[in-house]
Design goal:
By secondary structure, the protein is α/β, with parallel strands linked by helices. The protein contains 3 helices and 3 strands; from the N terminus they run βαβαβα.
Length: 75
């Protein structure tokens, strides 16, 4: 099942470092290009500087939430 996500750029946003790293590593094993952020501000900075195909985000985070992130990305 390797390389099913080859070339797809994915941003993983979660304030829990372990969960973020586990998810990102699994996606990387599938061939994705991975970006990671621990909060909304960091995620927005990445989105502004990189072409991101998919964002996987936690909804409830210590500094911001997934809904806020969605609104800012849509702007």
């Amino acid at each position: 099942m390797a390389n099913k996500l080859k070339g797809l750029s994915i941003l993983v946003v979660d304030d829990e470092l372990d969960l973020r790293d586990i998810l990102a590593e699994k996606l990387r094993e599938e061939g994705a290009i991975l970006y990671r952020a621990g909060d909304v501000a960091s995620a927005i900075a990445i989105v502004k500087g990189e072409k991101i195909d998919l964002i996987l985000s936690d909804i409830l985070m210590a500094r911001g939430d997934g809904v806020e992130l969605l609104k800012k990305v849509k702007q």
